[in-house]
Amino acid sequence: SSIGINKQFFNQLLVIIKILIPRLRSDSFVLFITHLTALISRTFLSVYIARLDGAIVKSLVQRNPRDFIRTISIFLTVAIPASFINSFIKFAESKLALAFRSKLTRYAYDSYFRNQTYYRISNLDTRLLTPDQNLTDDIETFTTTLTHLFSHLTKPFFDIAVVSWTLVVMVLEKKRARGLKEVPILTIIVIFMTFLALRKLSPRFGKLVSEEARRRGLLRFAHTRIITNAEEIA
User: Fold this and answer.
1) Closest to 225 (Cα-Cα) out of 123, 233, 135, 118
2) Whose CA, among 32, 54, 74, 190, lies 20 to 30 Å from 199?
3) Is 2 a domain residue?
């Protein structure tokens, strides 16, 4: 079957997610919510820091030293939790990837050793040539990439939503020219059109990643065969 983002992909991903997060009280779900909360907090903090930047520039233009010192003090104070949240997002992402890896590895090994599946794969079935690669490196790569992809998809979505909403509120508060009310809609349209253009022009990364994993597995399989038949080769 073709490799791409289609209905089959989402169905398979849903099955895997049920393995990674089996219930709401699991440790992986708690880490997922923690990671999501950190991403949301980072978005709101980015908006607040942008407002502080504007206030600092405004105080400089107006030559108001009192407001400048006050906003700079607030900015330096906010920089401490901002740095902490950035580091915490990476930490939570690593912990979530490790939890997903543990869940998926345990499920894969339970299935691998059930009903002599390992024997049938090695001797009777040729569809899976590199089970050692699939049960180790591929699981680690998949879980790490999944959590990394979640972070890089969720944060831009929150950024677009919060920044657009903030822009709408600012326009309504200022009550300036009527044309400004269309700015958030135009922003969303531009972002969506950019996404479509990038998707159209980008290469098929899914196929490339799949081919890379296949070649890595074949290389490991070849080395394993050399070790197994070392005496005959010598």
Assistant:
1) 233
2) 32
3) no
